[in-house]
Design a protein that fits this description.
The protein is about 10% helix and about 65% strand. It has helices spanning about 1-20, 45-55; strands at about 30-45, 60-70, 75-90, 95-115, 125-145, 155-160, 165-185, 190-205, 210-215, 215-220, 225-250. It has an eight-stranded antiparallel barrel. The chain has a two-stranded antiparallel sheet with strand order 9-10. The longest helix is centred in the N-terminal third of the chain and has 21 residues, at about 1-20. About 20% of the residues are buried.
Length: about 250
């Protein structure tokens, strides 16, 4: 009877021994590596507005930019700026009007990073949106009026009241934003974005329309759409870290 039980025991044990011998034995110790993403605030300025302020005597502008990382992909973003621009419109060689627009704006919104970074990287290809508001004034410096009452020589004649200021103007709009940010050096980023804006409100004086809005750019007659861009240099301020992924790695004995 004992021989019977021994034989039965070996019959069940043999497949287990065969399977154990077929599997490799890992003698290396396991170590768990934890990767962490940095979260914080990125702040900087628009280089294009600073550049044009130096090379164009009819323009002065400054835009500060920033974003704050909420999740691995989602960022809060904002821009605040001030612009002053002198422009004129002509018909052939005849000046129709020369005007200066001056004011400030703020844009607040969010964007999503669609780029999958390697560990330790924080580059971005983003899509998102902003809600923007601007408060500004316009000064009509010079203008000419077409005088049709002159029988033999109808022509443009100078306006009677130059240097008229129209204040208390405002506008609001929505922006669709696409952009990129790339790390040049440790925590220093270069970026650019393209923007398509849609005017929601546009408060203007009945005597002179809003032809250019700070932060929105040129207003096209019969259309609420406008386009813009910026080129930014920003610095990332790390505030804390969050675990991104854990991975088991072999540790040499």
């Amino acid at each position: 009877m004992s021989k019977y039980f021994i034989s039965l025991f070996l019959l069940f044990l043999l497949p287990l021994l065969t399977r154990a011998q077929s599997e490799p034995i890992d003698l290396q110790a396991k170590d768990t590596v934890e990767y962490k993403d940095e979260y914080g605030l990125r702040v900087g300025a628009d280089l294009s507005r600073l550049t044009f302020s130096f090379i164009d005597e009819d323009y002065t502008g400054l835009e500060l930019v920033g974003d704050y990382r909420l999740t691995r992909k989602l960022y809060l973003a904002a821009e605040i700026g001030n612009e002053k621009k002198l422009q004129d419109e002509s018909l052939g060689s005849t000046l129709l009007y020369r005007y200066e627009t001056s004011g400030s704006y703020i844009k607040i919104g969010a964007e999503v990073n669609t780029y999958e970074n390697w560990f330790g990287m924080n580059n971005a290809i983003t899509i998102g949106g902003r809600y923007a508001v601007a408060s500004f004034s316009q000064t009509l410096q010079d203008y000419n009026i077409y005088e049709s009452n002159q029988f033999f020589n109808p022509d443009f004649v100078p306006g009677n009241n130059p240097n008229v200021e129209y204040s208390g103007l405002s506008a609001s709009w929505l922006e669709f934003v696409m952009g990129i940010k790339a790390e040049l050096f440790a925590n220093i980023y270069i970026g650019m974005s393209a923007r398509l804006g849609f005017l929601v409100t546009n408060k203007e004086d009945e005597n002179f329309p809003n032809l250019w809005i700070p932060g929105f750019n040129k207003v096209t007659g019969g259309s609420n759409f406008g386009v813009g861009y910026n080129y930014t240099l920003t610095y990332f301020i790390p505030l804390y870290k969050k675990s991104k992924k854990t991975k088991e790695t072999n540790q040499e004995p």
